[in-house]
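Duplicate of #3305? Posting structure anyway:
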């Protein structure tokens, strides 16, 4: 239930609920996410009404967790980025970092394919540019973590700026694909994301004694 404390902003309450490990909150998030996928697979329109009906939850329950479709979409993407980053790290440690990066891109595109109807809906809204920017910023944080922790970043480059560049480029390609502005299958999109990525992103600096050293730079303010 949403707290009755009027001093706590509703956005903060929702954020806390989305992070909650309470089994009821986890089940609700899973039901909503699964409902989005089923609607997408069935070629049906993804709206709040359709989601709550498919998930068998009330509108009040949905709005306890998410303010709107955009917030749901951003949460789904942020959660996916986190899972993929952890999987890529483990697989790179156990094998070929380049192969782990390619598989990560394939999984990323598959996520958008599975939830395409939702993302097509939010990326065509009047606030879509703000949404795309928010997605890129969320993706950039994960990329920056990877750069600082693992990548063989050239000495002349800044980790924050590099992460923003890669994230915005990748997001632009994904959004264009989701909106059918480009003709390509999921494998082709994943391959482009991988091949266009700088090689130093999947060249682990811990695996050799080369001259490049990835470091935590002073953040350049916009």
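Output from current build:
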């Amino acid at each position: 239930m949403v707290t009755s404390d009027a001093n706590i902003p509703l956005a903060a309450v929702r954020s806390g609920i989305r992070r909650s490990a309470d089994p009821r909150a986890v089940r609700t998030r899973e039901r909503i996410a699964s409902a989005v996928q089923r609607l997408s697979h069935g070629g049906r329109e993804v709206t709040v009404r359709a989601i709550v009906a498919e998930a068998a939850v009330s509108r009040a329950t949905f709005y306890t967790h998410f303010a709107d479709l955009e917030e749901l979409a951003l949460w789904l993407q942020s959660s996916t980025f986190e899972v993929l980053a952890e999987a890529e790290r483990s697989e790179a440690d156990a094998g070929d970092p380049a192969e782990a990066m390619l598989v990560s891109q394939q999984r990323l595109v598959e996520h958008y394919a599975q939830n395409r109807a939702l993302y097509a809906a939010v990326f065509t809204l009047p606030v879509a540019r703000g949404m795309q920017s928010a997605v890129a910023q969320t993706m950039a944080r994960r990329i920056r973590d990877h750069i600082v922790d693992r990548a063989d970043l050239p000495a002349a480059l800044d980790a924050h700026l590099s992460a923003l560049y890669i994230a915005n480029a990748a997001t632009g390609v994904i959004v264009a694909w989701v909106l059918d502005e480009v003709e390509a299958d999921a494998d082709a999109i994943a391959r482009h994301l991988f091949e266009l990525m700088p090689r130093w992103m999947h060249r682990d600096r811990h695996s050799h004694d080369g001259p490049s050293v990835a470091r935590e730079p002073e953040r350049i303010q916009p």
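Confirmed duplicate; merging threads. Residues 208-222 have pLDDT under 50 and may be disordered. Residues 69-94 form the longest helix (26 residues).
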